[in-house]
Amino acid sequence: MFVGMDLLMNKKNLKLGIFSFPLTKSNATPSKNLVHILSSIASRTYLLTSTDYLDQIDEYPRVRTYSINYTLEFNSIKKIVKYLQRELRLALLVKALNKNVDAWVFFFGGDKYILPMLTAKLLGKKIILLKGGSSIKDALSINDLFYRATLFSLNVNFHLSTYIVLYSHSLISEWNFEKYRHKILIAHEHFLDFSTFSVTTPLPGRPPLIGYIGRLSGEKGVQHFAQALPAILADRQDLRVLIGGDGQLKESIEASLQERGVTAHVDLPGWISHDDLPNYLNQLQLLILPSYTEGLPNIMLEAMACGTPVLATPVGAIPDVIIDGKTGFIMENNSPECIAENVKRALDSPDLEQIAKDGRRFVEENFSFERTVENWKEILQSVE
Description:
By secondary structure, the chain is α/β, with parallel strands linked by helices. It has helices at 28-39, 76-96, 114-122, 135-141, 147-160, 170-174, 222-235, 250-259, 277-281, 298-305, 318-321, 336-347, 352-366, 369-381, and strands spanning 15-19, 44-50, 63-68, 103-106, 126-130, 163-166, 184-186, 209-213, 240-244, 266-270, 286-289, 310-312, 329-330. Helix 6 links the parallel strand 6 (163-166) and strand 7 (184-186). The chain has a 7-stranded parallel β-sheet with strand order 3-2-1-4-5-6-7, with helices on both faces. The chain folds into 2 domains: 8-191 and 368-381, Rossmann fold, CATH 3.40.50; 203-366, Rossmann fold. The chain is 39% helix and 15% strand. Helix 2 runs parallel beside helix 3 (114-122) and helix 7 (222-235) crosses helix 12 (336-347). It is built from 14 helices and 13 strands. It holds the Pfam family Glycos_transf_1. InterPro entries: Glyco_trans_1. GO terms for molecular function: glycosyltransferase activity. This is Glycosyltransferase family 4 protein. Residues 201-354 form the Glycosyl transferase family domain.
């Protein structure tokens, strides 16, 4: 805790603003979680977001939502114009809510839009920036033409923030946040409904199926998993493979599978809805997450809650959750060779069933709604 500060939590009517823009398929669930957590603490919560996927955010009696349209543009000029228009509209909404909000929590997109955060700062509001991932590494992994503009926005908003919330202390060095160490706090918005994400099919009763579920994009390393499949299937010809998700690499991955002659072994169901996830996870013997960069992946926690062992790279907050050979499996890197070697190691492990049970127990103990809310109460008590 930070010493010598007035406590926001001492105010009987704490009012919070949440900025999460835009909503997408992949961030709707964590945004929904954050709204649920903070609205259970604050007397009133105001959400600034986009109109897309808004139906996935539950309506809470103490939450008021303000949304604007978000259109994905591919023309560079139009992209810049639309971005500037959104900057202005969002900043005006922050200004309009001046008397209603004591402090702002900026989440997805919060580090890329300068005017909304600058407006909040000029109005004297405390700003908490919750970092769900490394925007710099994400931009590099997809060869974003606007990388330099993104980098400028990030640096400005990191300085404007009163506090920066990360998922793990290890991310301070991994994401080069050493110069912001004095303003970093540790928390997350993750919690699970253990009645939904539960073990319905014990591991020994599952088919020989392994897979990846997530966004089909460069930073996720899924292309390397596809490249590893010939070696994996040569060792285990009985295996089937699931690659669930959608994204810019979909056609490239399909072509890669065709080129390597493994298409007949792979199921590609496309995007898997959150409601359908427990069913898919209860079919897998192993979930593979070969990411280049991560924060704290929801799918990892959801898989563990379903009794599905996870094999992942040691990035982000993953090593805080997966202890190799205890609660899951860690692979040194995401090269196809390393993935294939570690898939074999995991599937051949005599302790696989116990590892699945210990993984389930770990998330039950650390990712309940109640525990996450208490963590955020401590965060808010650190803000003057």
